[in-house]
Write a structure and sequence with these properties.
Layout: H1 4-10, H2 16-22, E1 31-32, E2 38-39, E3 54-60, H3 70-83, E4 88-92, H4 97-101, E5 109-110, E6 113-116, H5 118-122, H6 128-149, E7 157-160, E8 164-166, E9 176-178, E10 189-191, E11 193-195, H7 200-207, H8 211-219, E12 222-226, E13 231-233, H9 234-237, H10 240-247, E14 254-258, E15 263-266, H11 281-290, E16 293-297, H12 302-317, E17 323-328, H13 330-336, H14 349-368, E18 373-378, H15 385-397, E19 401-405, H16 407-410, H17 416-428, H18 444-456, E20 460-463, H19 465-477, E21 484-487, E22 507-516, E23 521-526, E24 545-547, E25 550-552
Parallel strand pairs: 3-16, 3-17, 4-15, 4-16, 8-11, 17-18, 18-19, 20-22, 21-23
Antiparallel strand pairs: 1-2, 2-14, 5-6, 6-14, 7-12, 9-10, 12-13, 14-15, 22-23, 24-25
Helix pairs in contact: 3-17, 6-7, 6-10, 8-10, 12-14, 13-14, 14-15
């Protein structure tokens, strides 16, 4: 099979104005970034049309190093729906340079289920990530300057909580010291970097309702704690307007196209293992304005992305999906069933049967949250028919709709079974009202415990000293009504990346809490998860190059 880049280069793209016109979006309103990319003004969102659209959430079993392919499935499903005569639109996240040049590679789908132009989307796109990075670090610089300039007046912060960010996997920046050297270099302080997708600015952009809401959230960002234990926020710096200016263009969703000419709104890119893992509310509502069926995805497994999609994004946006699609792969099931990495026999039937426990856990979690669920097996070329039959039969016995998909190899044509099943399920058995994992009135501690026990399956939850101190501060400042966003490994339901399948009788450890008063959520850091990832021994960057004027390796 051809490489993804080869497939992408052979595709004849339509001008973005024609893609917009296909869905009834006025092309005169577009702000073009070349021929095939544009930003769409927020004024086009129609609040009356949004609830009439059929929103479909694509999630998955716990991912493995073998990959799952949610984005590929999402793209193929939307294209297949259009082939069936439905008006379908995509709403996806933007890729981060961190995984693109690190372990994962590109994040625009794969094979014949891609969003295009994939090289531009995977790289700098419309500059949204750069705007978020600049806005975040501008706040850091302005805060340091404020402390420096007002120190002789007796101003100081007992704690500085605002780190810097960079959209690069760089473990050396996790812990740094600033202000070293002469006094003119500033005040010496310990700090560090997170990756841009973990930035509170990223979360704010993805949760903001409009420009006024964006400004208000920026003003409310917590930067540190004063000597008398009061919160010090962006509004205290007096720079909320300046930061909003930096983000003004980035707030508008981006429109591109799939390999088959389906419209796709791509906007925002928080990771689900360290942030809330969903594209922007604005992009989703824009897609729901112009699409009768809107396919979106949430990062990693259902325990992370899907839970946060429902408990945070849907709660905040007032939207809810009509259907949840659970993606699984034969190799992923084998690994959850005990197959070892490097197994020359690629596992066996018993591994698949054992791995189905992970699938069942995610299905039950979604059902417990009021969701109608169907399963799709993302087919790889080495999957055997007898292996597929086991999964299909299991789903039948569990009363769960099942469909194969070959979106990677065949595009929309390979997802026709899945598309028809999705349409029929929405018609006959749509999801009911969301049953949230916790109530807004629950304490932050109880919210975390509820997710850990009811979604992950933990038998016990332990809060470290730093987390307990943060809980006291949250109670003191009256922030207990916020939802919780748990940062943990994506590879396990537990906080231990090596525990595949469905771990039993485990303790879930909360190491620290990050108070996001702008994004209006509490980030609970579990286990040894890092908000600044590192690079593997052989990063994808070693394979990215330009050959004969053409980009290679970004896949």
């Amino acid at each position: 099979m051809k490489t993804e880049l080869e497939i992408a280069r052979e595709c004849k793209l339509e001008r973005i104005e024609k893609i917009a016109e296909k869905i009834g979006l006025p092309s005169d309103d577009l702000e073009n970034y070349g021929k095939y990319i544009a930003k769409v003004p927020l004024k086009l969102i129609d609040a009356e049309k949004v609830p009439k659209s059929n929103l479909i959430l694509v999630t998955a079993i716990s991912p493995t190093k073998a990959g799952i392919g949610k984005t590929t499935v999402s793209i193929g499903l939307s294209m297949a729906m259009n082939r069936l005569g439905k008006k379908s639109v995509l709403a996806l996240r933007e890729p981060s340079l961190g995984p693109c040049f690190g372990m994962k590679g590109g994040a625009t789908g794969g094979g014949y289920s891609q969003v295009l132009p994939m090289d531009k989307i995977n790289l700098h796109f419309t500059g949204d990530f750069h705007a978020i990075t600049s806005a975040h670090n501008m706040i850091a610089a302005l805060l340091d300057n404020y402390i420096y300039q007002h120190r002789e007046e007796g101003f100081a912060l007992k704690e500085v909580l605002w780190k810097r960010v960079l959209d690069v996997n760089d473990r050396n920046l996790r812990c740094i010291t600033t202000g070293i050297g002469p006094k003119t270099n500033g005040i010496v302080a310990e700090s560090g970097f997170d990756i841009t997708p973990a930035s509170e600015i990223m979360a704010i952009l993805c949760l903001a309702k409009d420009e006024d809401d964006l400004r208000q959230r920026i003003e409310n960002i917590l930067l540190g704690v004063t000597l008398d234990n009061k919160p010090f926020k962006v509004r205290d710096l007096g720079v909320g307007g300046a930061i909003t200016v930096l983000l003004r263009d980035a707030l508008s969703p981006n429109i591109v196209q799939t390999i088959e000419g389906t419209a796709a709104f791509i906007h925002g890119g928080p990771f689900a293992n360290i942030a809330h893992g969903c594209n922007s509310i604005l992009a989703t509502k824009m897609a729901m304005t112009f699409g009768d069926y809107v396919v979106t995805e949430a990062g990693f497994g259902a325990d992370l992305g899907a839970e946060k999609f429902l408990d945070i994004k849907c709660r905040k946006a007032g939207i809810q999906p009509k259907l949840t699609v659970m993606v699984a792969t034969i190799m992923g099931l084998k690994m959850h069933g005990g197959m070892q990495v490097g197994d020359l026999d690629n596992g066996n039937i018993d591994n698949i049967k054992a791995g189905l426990e992970n699938l069942d856990k995610h299905i039950n979690n979604m059902r417990n949250m009021g969701q109608s669920v169907i399963v799709t097996l993302n087919r790889f070329s080495n999957d055997k028919e007898e292996e597929i039959v086991i999964v299909r039969q299991h789903c039948k016995e569990c009363g769960v709709g099942f469909a194969m998909n070959e979106g990677y190899m065949k595009g929309g044509e390979g997802c026709m079974e899945l598309a028809q099943l999705a349409i029929d399920t929405i018609s006959n058995n749509p999801s009911g009202d969301i049953k949230f994992t916790y109530s807004e009135t629950d304490s932050i501690k109880d919210k975390i415990i509820s997710v850990a026990k009811n979604v992950y399956g933990a038998s016990n939850v332990v809060f470290k000293k730093s987390a307990m101190k943060a809980l006291e501060r949250i109670d003191e400042w009256g922030l207990g009504n916020y939802p919780v966003c748990i940062a943990k490994t994506q590879y396990s339901l537990s906080d231990d990346a090596k525990r595949h399948g469905v771990p039993k009788d485990f303790t879930f450890t909360i190491r620290d809490l990050v108070i996001n008063t702008g994004a209006e959520m509490i980030v609970a850091v579990a286990g040894d998860i890092m908000r600044m990832p590192g690079l593997p021994k052989h990063p994808q960057a070693e394979r990215i190059d330009i050959e004969n004027g053409l980009l290679v390796g970004l896949e």
